[in-house]
Amino acid sequence: MNSVLHETDNGVNSAHHESSPATIAAQRQMEPASLSKLIRGELDWIVMKSLEKDRERRYESASSFADDVRRYLDDQPVEACPPSAAYRLRKFTRRNKRQVLTASVVLAALLVGIIGTTWGMLRAQSARMVAIERGAEARALLEFLENNVFAAARPEGEEGGLGYKVTLREALEAALPVIQESFTDQPLVEARLRTTLGKSFMRLWDAKIAAEQFEAARALYTQHRGPDHADTLETMSLLAKSYFALGREADALKLNEETLALQKLKLGADHADTLESMDSLANSYRADGRYGEALKLHEETVMMRKRKLGPDDPATLESMNSLANCYAGQGRLDEAVKLHEETVRLRKLKHGADHVVTLQSIKALANDYSALGQHARAHELRKPNLALYKSQLGADHPLTLAAMSDLAHGYAALGLNAEALKLRKEALELYKSKLGADHPLTLYGMCNLSNSYAVVGRTDEALELREQTIAPYKTRLGPGHPLTLGSMSNLANAYAGLGRHADAVKLRKEIMAFRKVKPGPDHPDTLGSMCNLANSYSALGQHAEARTLREETLALMKAKIAKLGDEHPDRLESMNGLAWLLANCPDPEFRDPGRAVELAKKTVELDPSRGGYWNTLGAAQYRVGGMGDWKASVTALEKSMELRNGGDGFDWFFLAMAHWQLDHKKEARKSYNQAVEWMDNNKPNDEELRRFRVEAAELLGMNDKQD
């Protein structure tokens, strides 16, 4: 046996066998490499054991050798192999493949179950910890509410009692002083409570207390959660809203910008909170007169909310309403009407016809109609809307008071000045008691009441109110804020109407300087300010200054029209403004009626639905003169009156003059009397109407002495 093995191991062939690896592999129909792999390992061990020099370590006999070979062939452990655990396991697996596979599946399932159970236990433990923490918060909050809020309903004299007639507002205010001492070791509970209270006071329209709560909550969250935690960012957004409601619009704008930047980084550009801050920041831009930035952000927010939330989601509808308001603020009234009408329709379907958000959209739509001169149509919406506001929110809610102011404006536009005056006085008293004497809404109410006083001839009271608004506006909103400048413009107009042109010049120079910076030198408000200042210069005999300013105004108007594309929404407004100035500039040297007609015809061709454009065309055609143009003037002015619910003094004065030139004496006098009545009831101190009134009276030979 040993000699045979030695011969085989040394590659020596016997006389009757060819035993090379290639030959053996061919005989077994195997690759040589596979054969080599097969004989390594256990067969090597068997051969090496049989060749051991140490007798004690060799097989005892040929039968022992044969038994080990049989064990190899039966996939049992061989004696020649060291009996390691891994080796015996492999051999066991080969003999019992099916049983081992089944056992492996069971074992794997057990392992997965154990891992899952362990993970579940860890999660459950975490959840229990959160539940314990929240339970502690809930108990602390409940205890606070019981002892410091609900206790207010106890009879006076009992601990915490304020009497049975206590209001929610009184109960909440009574609890405020003890918040900090109640949660000395629970800062996050205090932060959550203050956030909730701030929201409650916002709904109670007390933005001052709300802001105090949000400021405290923000400080706590920043300290214990971090400056960019979601809870911190939420309170920052709420704080910005409270600043805006307080009239602290600069602070609101700055905080909205900071919050939005952090939310985009932390939460993502399309997160619901991020989109809410985008809408708030756009509102801040609009209030600050940054209309271009506001419009871009509003449009982006609407697009993203439609994609993220759906076209009829409440947040999407809120953004649509804000965008429509922005269109209206920029004079893009046709787009504003279309979008407001769509928003009203969707909000009625989503919330109901008497829901507050629906009422807000109806209110905005009525304002659009009014801006278009469709006062009767606006009035049809405003009167029932005010009744719904009162039933939903109460008579002194600020939103109800805003609806009252709008209805009063409608009364004034319709010539119902006694009704307008009564409603504005009522609204102002409620504003003062609800918001305070220097709140921007209160100041706005004072401006409205001053207009009513002026219309009914109570000039001294009107002037006093207008003068009283300037300082508070400058203090609360800043000297360059649009509302401040609007109030100053009203006062300047009053001075001009009273012949106090030096006082008017002083104010109008200040207004023009601010408006050239913002909203910009070619904005319609700025151009209007320049025209007004030029008129005041002329009234003072400062003709050189007036001429210089009018030349600058005309140049800016022409340049703006040139740079705006044909499809730009501001182009038509700019063309109409230039046409009006070329037709009716107080200094005849700057008039160009032919060019004015050319521009006005193009505007009515591009948008024939705007009554104001037809009024400009009629005035320009009258200035050109001649039988054909006077007839065309009558046609255009009648179209203006049709589109603007019967027209106004600007229609009737020119209609009176055109009829007179056409020898229609009766129609001329009738139109003149209508114009005078409308002016006396609506704009008795308007400088342009005063000029047209004098011009028409001289032409018709009317003896008209204005006060």
What keywords describe this structure?
single chain, 707 residues, mainly alpha, Serine Threonine Protein Phosphatase 5, Tetratricopeptide repeat, 76% helix, 0% strand, elongated, disordered N terminus
Helix coverage percent of residues? over 70%
Q: Over the alpha carbons, how many angstroms does the gyration radius reach?
A: 44 Å
Number of helices: 34
**Straight-line N-to-C gap:** 145 Å
| CATH fold group of the domain at 580-700 | Serine Threonine Protein Phosphatase 5, Tetratricopeptide repeat
Tell me the β content.
under 5%
Largest sheet: none
CATH superfamily of the domain at 580-700: Tetratricopeptide repeat domain
Q: Sum up the overall morphology in one term.
A: elongated
Report the CATH C-level class of the domain at 580-700: Mainly Alpha
| Low-pLDDT residue spans | 1-19
Tally of strands: 0
Mean pLDDT: 83
| Class from helix and strand fractions | mainly alpha
Secondary-structure arrangement, i.e. CATH architecture of the domain at 580-700: Alpha Horseshoe
